[in-house]
Design a protein that fits this description.
The structure is a single chain. With 223 residues, the chain is α/β, with parallel strands linked by helices. The chain has a single domain, classed as 3-Layer(aba) Sandwich (Rossmann fold), CATH 3.40.50. The protein is 33% helix and 26% strand. It has a 7-stranded mixed β-sheet with strand order 3-2-1-4-5-7-6. Strand 2, helix 4 and strand 3 form a beta-alpha-beta unit. The model has no long low-confidence stretch (mean pLDDT 94). It binds S-adenosylmethionine (SAM). The site of S-adenosylmethionine has 19 residues, from helix 1.
Length: 223
């Protein structure tokens, strides 16, 4: 699916931005609760140019796994690994998996993650692949662990184009109604869903209707 999108332009456009505010705010909350991230593991899915992955490493996470399918992301991860991994002592703070969303469930272990981050990426898998990925993610979060991610809504311009013409490239994506989002989050607590349903632009300046659910949630400690 990579060849359908020009990720180079997207990465170029985003290269100097700050880490997303929803992540930095959540890290502040977690830091107040837990003190240090040293013993914690995080996963960023579809990490792109690694801005949020770097924020997790800077915050002090003991282990961060970043996934993506592009060579560019792999190269950026390799240079970040040179900074944070202690190769002499076999200490791997950053692990990069060049795996697709479809393949990721095979790499996830139950109750292994304190935090899952996935901004503007989980939509790039077909609905069946998404359901499998979601189930494996829910299982991979530790009791008390958190998720911070976006899902794309069914009013989104891409969803409308997909419905109108099955042959368009967006048919490999998944879209969700508000009710579906609530169902997906049924096993979580401290759920926060901010719904953005508004006209805007893509990062390359094309007009587009966006329908995004910005989600944060925590798995119950007794899950
Ligand atoms: C819109 S970018 C978002 C990047 C980053 N998370 C951010 O917020 O800037 C989507 C990312 O998902 C990756 N991606 C797209 N489809 C994928 C798939 N099926 N499996 C894994 N990664 C995928 C792309 O390579 C790209 O880096």
């Amino acid at each position: 699916m990579t060849e359908k999108y020009n990720w180079r332009e997207y990465y170029e456009h985003h290269k100097n931005r700050e880490p997303r505010e929803e992540l930095t705010q959540l890290l502040d909350v977690m830091r107040r609760e837990r003190g240090s991230f040293e013993d914690m593991s995080a996963l960023e899915i579809g990490a792109g140019n690694m801005i949020e992955t770097k924020a997790l490493l800077d915050a002090g996470f003991g282990h961060v796994t970043a996934t993506d399918i592009t060579d560019l992301a792999e190269n950026m991860a390799a240079s970040l690994q040179m900074d944070v991994n202690d190769f002499a002592n076999d200490v791997e703070r950053l692990e990069f998996l060049k795996v697709s969303h479809e393949e990721l469930p095979d790499h996830l272990q139950a109750e292994s993650l304190d935090l899952v981050v996935a901004y503007l990426s989980l939509q790039f898998v077909n609905p069946e692949g998404f359901q499998r990925l979601w189930q494996s993610l829910v299982q991979a979060v530790k009791p008390g662990g958190r998720i911070t991610l976006d899902l794309i809504g069914d009013h989104d311009g891409w969803a409308k184009e997909t419905l109108a013409d099955e042959s368009v490239r967006y048919k490999d994506m998944n879209f969700h109604s508000r009710e579906e989002v609530e169902r997906l989050l049924a096993g979580f607590e401290q759920v926060q869903v901010i719904e953005d349903d508004s006209d805007g632009k893509t990062s390359d300046g094309v007009a587009k209707h966006w329908h995004i659910f910005h989600i944060q949630a925590q798995k119950p400690t007794d899950a």
